UniProtKB/TrEMBL annotation, chains A, B, C, D:
Residues 209-236 form a coiled coil. It comes from the Archaea. The keyword Coiled coil applies. InterPro entries: MJ1210-like (IPR004426), Proteasome_assmbl_chaperone_2 (IPR019151), PSMG2_sf (IPR038389). It comes from Methanothermobacter wolfeii (Methanobacterium wolfei). Transmembrane segments: none annotated. This is Proteasome assembly chaperone family protein. One of its GO terms (cellular component) is proteasome complex. The keyword Transferase does not apply. Keywords: Coiled coil, Proteasome.
Length: 257, 257, 257, 257
């Protein structure tokens, strides 16, 4: 595998779908929100993306089954009050290198543009590093008109206090150069636990703006499951760190193993 | 996006233009100087450069509007006492990897060579790390003749005390291999604040050498604006650092977010 | 050399061979096990793989002879009780960058697929970081059926406690996308010495599952030899570290040497 | 510039030349030795190599003149007692990334192979990290025959105590795969100053083996010049390090400068 590739699992026709991105990031906020929409509305997976810029590893699930690093595209047809179509992008990783991130985001935009996407929502978390009393929702937009719309939904515009790193930023930046418009929504979170409250605040704004209808009842339950899954990723990373930090005098098996 | 690309916004004919580069670097000195020229002389933006070697992120301006990482080409026609044409390159970033820097600088040279550029000025700062009483201007050149000219303008030649890192160095080094000539001017600066005085010293030499006519009155004002903008970049970077340094025991959301 | 390449040394026909991978990793466990099989069963080397993503260096053997970084393919014909064919992959390194790992593993899979491989065993170590009383064998699989088979051989499934980094993980993840099935076996090891006991435990499971017949008598002897070879790699790495950490005031000869 | 390129300055016919490599490395030993041969025997520069994997910077010489990062090929015709031809490779840098090192070394081998090179000498230093009473010369070879020859010249074979990192190793490793043979000679040096004594010991062996005739009288003088040049590289690097380590609270001008 020398290039990022998308495997299409189902040919589907969509009518000017809205594109929602929620790849891994701060506080698990975006992923939690998007996974919830996918499950509650029975979204259908129709494509998978694999990239040589993903971490060179696999995950192992609770049954000992190997799961490659990947991003997944789901669709929703005729959803919500407006009866619109949606493409939702989730996954277990993002690209590691800058070049990889640009390549992957370019390919994602090529792909969703083929279905007629003109509007983008990217979801993420904004880490405060300290306890949050009531999770606010922060945002940014590709146009003044959309920024105004965010303000109407009580989203705090991130004026002069930072940028947006990773796919949530790049998809909007690169999308705007192709004439797509969109917003980034970021749930306020301490950042150091799986934050169902930040996801709830984020989802409320997203559901209002899209007129999707999703019950938020099982969100805390989902957060609990996610916490367990995350434990796995943490331990794997600790192992990787341990492997890189063998003490002097210990045998180093990185090169000759 | 897999390759660095230049979007031309306006077809313009220029006559043997002088090329001035001032991409981000030490002390904000070069950028401050070049932005000042662009504003005071109403230079016209005619092309934008995007690269997969730029940081994989976007900035957000004071209105919450997303701004991609990019370099921007401006032109000046029939400017200054000599009535010459100019291309000025500014931007909010440089390439991250060595390979990216070489690719971007090669493309920039291809592009300006197409307009007939034979002379290059690259602008930057020289960090002293301590307070500077009266900002000197340091320089280097691609030929003995130009080095002599620098000396006539009281520029201190950087003999035996270091090299030039990034686009300011590479454009001259790679340009000289194509038969372009040029100089690098570096304003002396402590390096840890937006230094209008270093930019003023630098501009004085540049204006003398090019015979451009620019009032330096509003330079301090511009420095103040820039200081605010910089705050934004700093905070964004701090967030990125925080994200990379989650303490053990905290949930790590980098891989599964 | 701009791409990973495989030099085929002998044209061989194999009948649906089983593929066993044991590139360098934690505790030398996999390599020790695979080298033992190769020597005891007189496996024949038939191809070598070289990659620009390997460390940019060579090793020097006990006679002062230079050995490039490489991976090596061996075959076994009509082996064990079942009379099956095997391809065994060993080497002195793995790729350094994520992109390199994906490229190399993709090429390895292309290559062994050409011989009809449908089943993969990847061998490695699982570092505990502390003394191990009796080395257990951990595992993961690409299907529920194979996971069940692992359980029958007393392999502990790595449920919810981590992933698999490097070629041992990637070959299974990328292989499963091509319809190959396989398992990863990991011998439990403190991780900081050449662990013949972990290799023995691993081999026992592998031999049971493949019905290969290999005496384990000389395994400790082999471990001793390996310990000596490893010393060499360690010292080389220490030199590299020393080279990178010259104290200030010392002449740094990295750029101008 | 997206690929490593070689600019040929003079078309020259050489008869089975010996290839001597001395790119920057430990203790300046190899470079000092090769520069001495080039100057004493009036070797002629006939080609330059530029690479996007070199550090993205330029050097500035004592006259304020910009010098790109590059490698340089010199030839010697009908030299020494044997009247053989030589290609000598020197420069001010090596590639930074593993992939870059492999690409550059592959291109170098393509280039010298075109002149009929079959024998390689690579020169470097072996750092002891402590004072050296009488500099020994260490070595490694691509064949048992050449290793034996090294032993006859009192070269200590580096059995079991490490490998060879960078171009001096790779050129031999990659060359041997093309049927070239060669040795690496490493002068023993504390490693933290420009070591004329190590270069002298190295040159003695090289001159004996090649039957080149070079006076070693001015070697110490040359070492002194080199020490001054190195100061420049050091200060430049210190600046780069300072730039990367701005203290918190200071303005960071890396992204927006």
């Amino acid at each position: 595998m020398r290039e990022t590739t998308i495997n299409v699992l189902e040919d589907v026709e969509l009518s000017s779908p809205v594109f929602i991105e929620a790849l891994p990031g701060i506080g698990h906020v975006g992923k939690l929100a998007a996974d919830h929409i996918i499950d509650e509305l029975d979204a259908v997976k129709f494509a998978e993306l694999y990239s040589p810029s993903f971490p060179p590893q696999v995950l192992v699930d609770e049954d000992g089954i190997i799961e490659p690093m990947k991003n997944e595209f789901y669709y929703l047809k005729d959803a919500g009050e407006d009866g619109r179509d949606y493409i939702v992008l989730v996954g277990n990783t993002q690209g590691l290198s800058p070049e990889g991130q640009y390549e992957i985001c370019g390919l994602i935009l090529d792909f969703v543009e083929g279905y007629g996407v003109k509007e983008i929502f990217t979801l993420g978390g904004l880490a405060t590093g300290q306890p949050v009393e009531k999770a606010g929702v922060y945002g940014a937009a590709t146009s003044m008109e959309l920024a105004e719309k965010l303000r109407e939904h009580d989203v705090i515009l991130r004026s002069a206090d930072g940028g947006i790193i990773g796919a949530s930023g790049l998809l909007l930046g690169m999308g705007s150069l192709r004439g797509m418009n969109g917003v980034c929504l970021m749930g306020e979170t301490p950042g150091y636990f799986i934050d169902a409250e930040a996801a709830r605040a984020l989802l409320k704004v997203l559901l209002e703006m899209t007129k999707l209808d999703v019950s938020l009842e099982k969100l805390e339950e989902r957060a609990e499951e996610t916490r367990k899954m995350i434990m796995k990723a943490q331990q794997m990373e600790q192992e990787m760190i341990d492997r890189m930090n063998l003490k002097p005098g210990e045998e180093d098996l990185r090169y000759i193993g």
